[in-house]
Design goal:
Helix content is 41%, strand content 18%. It is of the alpha/beta class and 157 residues long. The protein has a single domain, classed as Mannitol-specific EII, Chain A (3-Layer(aba) Sandwich), CATH 3.40.930.10. α1 runs antiparallel to α2.
Length: 157
């Protein structure tokens, strides 16, 4: 599954307000609630699931990208939100770099194996400096989506 299949402009936030990874996760969950992708009544369960996963092993990758994620019972399909940060958010990344791009993924119970490819596609964004920098520099959600669509066309998966 491609990231462009689960993201839309209204679930992309340029310039997150968050200064910590915990705040970033909450901000993206709240974005999904405000766009009716998640129910308010599931907020606590989702945040606790993502926090528990994050406490086990940081989801900060390399090159300024973090992918907090969790398997949850309250979604029927992969649900995602993306945020960028000019200030950069400490995410205990493998390379020690703070995150400028945070992609929250919520995966339905029993479907994690099918979505490993989605995680691999996200990780691949980090290996392409040009795409990565275009995402970091994006001024609008539309700009972010344009970069992701171009990335999809380059890799054709």
């Amino acid at each position: 599954m491609r990231l462009t299949e689960v993201l839309r402009e209204d679930i992309v936030k340029v310039n997150l307000d968050a200064t910590t990874k915990w705040e970033a996760i909450q901000e993206l969950v709240d974005l999904l609630i405000s766009t009716h992708e998640l129910r308010l009544m599931d907020r606590s369960e989702i945040i606790e699931s993502v926090f528990a996963r994050e406490r086990t092993l940081s989801t900060g990758l390399e090159h300024g990208i973090a992918v907090p994620h969790a398997v949850v019972n309250c979604v029927e399909y992969v649900t995602a939100a993306l945020g960028t940060s000019q200030a950069s958010i400490p995410f205990e990344s493998h390379d020690g770099q703070p995150a400028k791009l945070v992609i929250l993924l919520l995966i339905p119970q029993g479907a994690f194996q099918r979505h490993v490819r989605t995680l691999a596609g996200i990780a691949r964004l980090g290996t392409n400096p040009e795409l990565r920098n275009q995402l970091f520099d994006a001024k609008t959600p539309a700009d972010v989506m344009d970069v992701l669509v171009r990335a999809d066309s380059l890799h054709g998966d």
